[in-house]
Design brief:
This protein has helices spanning about 25-40, 55-65, 75-85, 100-105, 120-135, 155-165, 190-210, 230-235, 250-255, 335-340; strands spanning about 20-25, 45-50, 70, 90, 110-115, 135-140, 170-175, 220, 240, 265-275, 280, 295-300, 305-310, 315-320, 330-335, 345-350, 355-360. The protein is an alpha/beta fold. It folds into two domains: about 15-20 and about 260-360, D-serine dehydratase-like domain (Lyase, Ornithine Decarboxylase, Chain A, domain 1, Beta Barrel), CATH 2.40.37; about 25-250, Alpha-Beta Barrel (TIM Barrel). Strands 1, 10, 11, 12, 13, 14, 15, 16 and 17 form a nine-stranded mixed β-sheet that branches. The chain has an eight-stranded parallel beta barrel with strand order 2-3-4-5-6-7-8-9, surrounded by five helices. Keywords: Lyase. This is Alanine racemase.
């Protein structure tokens, strides 16, 4: 159920109802421009990942600043972007449900829609859906570049799948999906560099073997906010699939030489109890902010530490400095931005202390 917006344009921040998901528009725009500037000299393209923001509005702003398209993880996310006018979407995931594949194929009538496979049986399923819909679908082969999750083995097994796709009348070989997700939060630069060097090596060998079989590889896609510089410098990746760069979160900020982006996403909360000495209780717990990657930070309030969450309550320890007053509103920096976004129906865009805009999070809850 779509909730009513927690604010109206022109409101002061202290008038916004809580909990609410805020975007600092100046920091957000800085992040988009910074990524564009960093990638421009490399010639590598940005296909921003919408699993982070789940919004056609954000996607359009990213594309206005140079992104060539969007990634998603779910068909439901792809639908919301396509219906919102995004012309180029890649599902960076395997889809095996006939019903989901029919929905995906239907989107090919209004946008360019691609999907990933790592098994010949998946190729047959996508092929059947494309034939039934009378469309052609680009299909990328996902290879395992070190994450140990999805992806066929690089080299000959991947080439065999690419040849199967290329031989199809209703599919097009779109390239390789080569994402190393677990490298994103390796804390030291050396760890990340080593992991991505291996990922690039596996990808490069596969591209070379594809060429030997007469197959061009239009896309080698992957990377994220934690490693995009390594993939962009590799000489093999052609597209970067970063998502969190637009918002940043506490966990990415823990990386040594943290990515050069500003925190732009916040959950606005309100102190609802000061009954216990040394503790402030806010109206934002598990249902308001994700803690899977650690507790949120309390923005620009040194001495306050978000110590724990229950369903509707967040416990903030007052360790030093000024204690917050009953009713005071505090910004929280999510530990993990993606699942935090998925708890909300609206972004509240803030600039200079005032609400400038409200954007619907149309793909919230799109798990299918």
């Amino acid at each position: 159920m779509l909730q009513s917006p927690p604010a109206e344009p022109g409101m002061r921040e202290d008038e916004v109802d809580t909990p609410a998901l805020l975007i600092d528009l100046d920091a957000f725009e800085h992040n988009l421009d910074t990524m564009a500037a960093l990638l421009a000299p490399t010639g590598v393209k940005l296909r921003a990942h919408a699993k982070t923001h789940k919004s056609a509005v954000v996607a359009k702003l990213q594309m206005a600043r140079g992104a060539v398209g969007q990634c998603v993880q779910k068909v439901g996310e792809a639908e919301q972007l396509a219906w919102g006018g995004i012309p180029d979407v890649l599902v960076t995931n395997q889809v095996v449900s006939p019903r989901k594949l029919a929905r995906l194929a239907a989107l090919a009538r209004i946008c360019k829609i691609g999907v990933c496979v790592d098994d010949a049986a998946q190729i047959a399923m996508v092929e059947e859906a494309a034939e039934a819909a009378g469309v052609r679908i680009p299909v990328l082969v996902e290879i395992d570049v070190g994450m140990g999750r999805a992806g066929v083995e690089h080299g000959p097994p991947a080439v065999a799948l690419a040849e199967r796709i290329a031989a199809s009348k209703t599919l097009m070989f779109g390239g390789l999906q080569a994402y190393h997700g677990s490298a994103q939060h390796m804390r030291t630069p050396e760890q990340r560099a080593t992991a991505i060097a291996e990922a690039a090596s596996r990808s490069r060998r596969t591209v070379e073997q594809l060429k030997q079989r007469g197959l061009d590889c239009p896309i080698v896609g992957g990377a994220g906010t934690g490693t995009f510089r390594h993939e962009a410098a590799s000489g093999v990746y052609t597209e970067i699939q970063a998502g969190s760069y637009a918002f940043m979160d506490v966990d990415y900020a823990k990386n040594d030489d943290a990515p050069p982006f500003r925190h732009s996403l916040f959950v606005l909360s309100q102190v609802m109890s000061r009954a216990t000495p040394g503790v402030a209780v806010v109206d934002c717990g598990h249902k308001g902010v994700s803690v899977d990657s650690g507790m949120p930070g309390v923005w620009e309030r040194p001495g306050l530490r978000y110590a724990g969450a229950s369903d509707e309550h967040g416990k903030i320890m007052i360790e030093d400095g000024a204690a917050p007053a009953l009713g005071e509103k505090l910004r929280l920096v999510p530990g993990h931005c993606d699942p935090t976004v998925d708890r909300y129906d609206w972004y509240v865009g803030m600039r200079k202390g005032r609400v400038e805009c409200l954007w619907p999070i149309a793909a919230r809850g799109a798990m299918a």
